[in-house]
Amino acid sequence: MNRKENKPGVGDKAPEFKLASTSGRMVSLSDYKDKAVILYFYPKDFTPGCTQEACDFRDGHAALKKKGAIVLGVSPDPVEKHQEFVKEYQLPFELLSDPDHTAAKNFGVYGQKTLYGRTFMGVQRSTFCIDPEGKVKAVFPKVKVDGHVQEVLDCL
Q: Any catalytic annotation for residue 55?
């Protein structure tokens, strides 16, 4: 664990979580033991960058699945809003609700942000590639959406 940033780094065990999912069940990282997991954190459903990122993961889903990876998106939005987002954009993967930012804090991706000169606390767009043993294989902090799914594919 990178103590300076309180963020798991490459080779660290990924923090466990238990979050409500768009499938209507509680989801834990341990549910995907023996599978590669692409865990991406994003700020908010239906915003331009988050929508593009989700659609890019949707469009790359077959290639990610072919490499044996499960995609899970995490944001503070409630499950009901996630379900609308999944339906609107036909997302073939689950979105998880982290309303109290517990998972985001455990992964070190909740913190101070600045937008249009305003400072506030929020989720920093980040992706973690987690190997089948539950260890972090790659970390993508402060993700730039364009080309990101290809970066993720390349890490698998």
A: no
